[in-house]
């Protein structure tokens, strides 16, 4: 990381919303086709943030969206 430390990591809007616990924002981003597999500079996906930060409601949204997109 650079001089700004963790704050200069590039994150997608989906990762930012997930890490912040903004469930409704995550829901809208997923409905609009946000890339669930996109990763930040440390190769963490939004789902990883949900899983490691106890965001169970958001993790459930990801699981439901994955099933929907498989159809």
Low-confidence stretches: 1-5
Strand content: under 5%
Average pLDDT works out at 88
Strand tally: 0
Portion of residues within helices:
40-55%
Alpha carbon gyration radius = 12 Å
Main β sheet profile? none
The helix/strand class is mainly alpha
Total DSSP helices: 4
Gap between N and C termini: 39 Å
Shape: globular
Give me the strand/helix succession. Answer: HHHH
SSE layout:
Blueprint: H1 13-20, H2 23-31, H3 46-52, H4 56-70
Helix pairs in contact: 1-2, 1-3, 2-4
Folded structure, characterized:
- The structure is a single chain.
- This protein is an all-alpha fold and 71 residues long.
- The protein is built from four helices and no strands.
- It is globular and about 35 Å long.
Search tags:
single chain, disordered N terminus, 71 residues
Quick recap:
The protein is an all-alpha fold and 71 residues long.
